[in-house]
Amino acid sequence: MESRTLIQPDVKFISYLKNNGGDTLKKCYQCASCSVVCSLSPQHEAFPRKEMISASWGQKDNLLSDPDVWLCHGCSDCSTHCPRGAKPSNVLAAIRAYIIESCAFPSFMGKALKNSKYLFPLLLVPIIVLFALLYDNLNGNFAQLGEGTVKFANFLPHGTLEMFWIGGNVLIFAFAAIGLLRFWKNLTLLSPPKEKKSFVNAVIGMVTEFISHKHFKACKQDSSRFWGHLLIFYGFIGAMITAGLAVMALVVFELSPIPLFHPIKILGNLSGIAMVIGCIIFAVHRLKTNTNKIVNTYSDWLLITFVFLVSFTGLLTQTFRIVDVPVLAYSTYFIHMVLIFFLLWYAPYSKLAHMFYRTLALVYLRQNGREKKMTMFKSFAFFFFKL
Ligand code: SF4
Ligand code: SF4
Predict the structure, then answer these.
(1) How confident is the model at residue 137 (pLDDT cuts 50, 70, 90)?
(2) In CATH, what number does 11-103 get?
(3) Contact 64 CB / ligand 2 (< 6 Å)
(4) Is the pLDDT of residue 51 over 50?
(5) 3-state SS, residue 41
(6) Mean pLDDT of the residues in the chain
(7) Rounded to the nearest 5°, which phi and psi values hold at 220?
(8) Residues sharing a CB contact under 8 Å with residue 295, sequence separation 6 or more, in sequence order
(9) What ipTM was reported for this prediction?
(10) Residue identifier of the C-alpha nearest atom 8 of ligand 1
(11) Whether the CB of 21 sits within 6 Å of ligand 2
(12) For range 186-209, the mean pLDDT
């Protein structure tokens, strides 16, 4: 007698996907056009059709352990060609959001970053921390800020600020590591590797891919996403390097403020400008794209808005310092710091967490021979000439 498998759909999981951009998932009639059109899908066990089937049947465990959902870069080529308007691109985005939320530690933070009603309380945390530091530094005498030239070290003491910054980051990275370990456990337990390749080679391959952004370029519908992401990616890395070098310049060489044409400052400004332009490109792309193709979720806008505001207030702060307008310089600097703390302290739970989860999934996939191989030379050839 033929054996049968009883499938128990996870109804809550289906509801989650529907409420987070995947409301069209039940329209799928499994024709596989999406898998054919996706330029990133491997030939063997192609996606996203199989993910659409698992999602509409509520097979949560299959999807939690499916590294392929992280191969998708959300270009929406598949949604454009889906004859049923099932928007597989949005369903995959909802699955990724669920994975981040379910792995989050502490778990309530995963939910808080998804819901606009928690935005104000979340913002209040860095505001209170920074205001307390400021109050303590000035002994409550805010009037003194209007006197003399603008000097940020007089506003928020660098030593204490860095202590909070480093302490907060250590805690956040520890929490992020717990989430990532849960994710890795899901991948390896529920989707055990078929063949094991060198971990180091997998990491090198993944880094090469990130540098070249070849997967973003492979999507055919709209090249603006490629440029938007590229600018934000390199802008973010540049900003991180600038922050590290600025601390070194202060501690080792007591250089503060850094002159406008110093290499560190130039790198910081170029990074800020790159992120501002990248965010504008992304925002225009999202606003322009037909809502039949993509769904703009709260998490998408939260990340774009905060990355834009961090970069923009950084550039504004510098401008107000140079023209020496204390009230504007100090207030913009305060807002800038609040936004930075918000962005980085909540990174393991916001859409920024994709950076960590995707990295891990791509390493896992490469280690297991799932990715098509591309040498460093080929990656750059692809990047520049689309060969
Ligand atoms: S999502 Fe659309 S294109 Fe993909 S299998 Fe379903 S109906 Fe076909
Ligand atoms: S959104 Fe783009 S990368 Fe993702 S499955 Fe669809 S076609 Fe492939």
Answers:
(1) confident
(2) 1.10.1060.10
(3) no
(4) yes
(5) coil
(6) 87
(7) -95, -20
(8) 21, 23, 87, 90, 93
(9) 0.98
(10) 31
(11) no
(12) 78
